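Q: I have 258 residues here and want to know how they pack in 3D. Can you give me a structure?
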Amino acid sequence: MKSLEITVPELPYSVEEAMNQLRVNIKFCGKHTKKILITSSIPNEGKSIISACLWKMLAEAGFPTVLVDADLRGSVAKGRWRMQGTGELKGLDYYLSGLSEYQDVVYATNVENGFIVPITNVLENPSPLLEAPRLSELFDRLSEDYRYVIIDTPPLDMVSDGTLIASLCDGAVLVVGSGMTSKRLVKQSMQQLERARCSLLGVVLNHVDAKPHKYSKNYGYGYGYGNGYGYGYGEYYGKEDDDKKKKSKKKRASQEKE
């Protein structure tokens, strides 16, 4: 299998704990929930970073997990995660176009148990490709080979791509930008998922304006997870946060072994 080097940023302690709670909740969705859509209503709500971090945490917890970049119109993952490999990079766009096969577009990564199907070129009108049987066949085979298939899709309110992909998934996580997205849009996105017969597994509240942490600066950008619990996200400093993070990782590793 071909391989890629991929860089996912380290998260501050409080954000990592929120993401870890999301990982645990995904784990309790049941063994038949494998193909998981990560989407949002509008751009810039943070769905791609949530997709990548959830993928990484599931893989590091010992679950073989593949991340599928399915934002064929506007993917930025190739540059954002600084993907590096040998030879020509081929991804979902090549597969759906019939120019490559399954084994050509699934890459191992430097994250243990972490695999990825990238996008090489963005497309102006991928809808006909998304409606073709090859996408469903790809998802089905990935779900046979890996415990989780995390699928990063375009925003639901922008184009029909997200809804098309949702119809092929077992469940969805909706990312909502705090102060960015109206209740009307959130409700509309939930209705789109319902029409696609894709169960809503939960909502991630992102960009939460939380209270500044005494070890943080550059406040105002945040990640939060569910039910009004917010976590500040900025640069973090201090031995206390570092110690908490190390203890948390040791505790998780011990729990996963049990």
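Q: Anything worth noting?
A: The mean pLDDT is 81. Residues 239-257 form the longest helix (19 residues).
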